[in-house]
Amino acid sequence: MPTEIIGPAWKFCNYRSNSESVDGACGRVYTLDTSRPEANPRLANHYSPRKGAILNIQVTVNGKAQEREVDPRRLLVHFLRDDLGLTGTKIGCDTSQCGACVVKMDGKTVKSCTCLAVQANGSDVTTIEGIAPEGGLDPVQEAFWDNHGLQCGFCTAGMIITVDELLRKNPNPSEDEVREGLKGNICRCTGYQNIVKATLAAAEAKRS
Fold first, then answer.
1. pTM score, two decimals?
2. Which of 5, 25, 81, 126 is deepest in the core (most CB within 10 A)?
């Protein structure tokens, strides 16, 4: 497991991979040491000794530059939902199991309930609100709508972002490959059949 040390009180920032563990995530262990910011190049320029443990972060979210002061323990999902008001990203389990909180960070899907906001410093984050930046619906969103790939909708944002990355990596997946790629996302309503159907329809739409 690759490890990047940033200090005590570790957290997992899960980068999904279709070829890895059952929940589709490989852990990168981060720790955060605000007492020695000079040892952490990613944080050194954003630490204010006068403000103690409060860190200043700069992150681009859905194409818009954001600068905020955050507690170093604040999770990315809370930063997105509570600080930026982007509530499309859901909190389902807080343990990296359900995938409702999946967003993109620098082009890779991340489970934001187990990723610190400071780990996104300097990164480009995309939430469900930014998946179709030109307005309207992205082809994956259209496919979920047309094929009834949702019921209560709680898991849908994470599903759509996961499917978007899946189709970027594999534009023509088989049904088995779709099911494998969605192992890290739990739906408690639909039985997955229409989600798989929507994913295959989105793949066809993107190819045409």
1. 0.76
2. 25
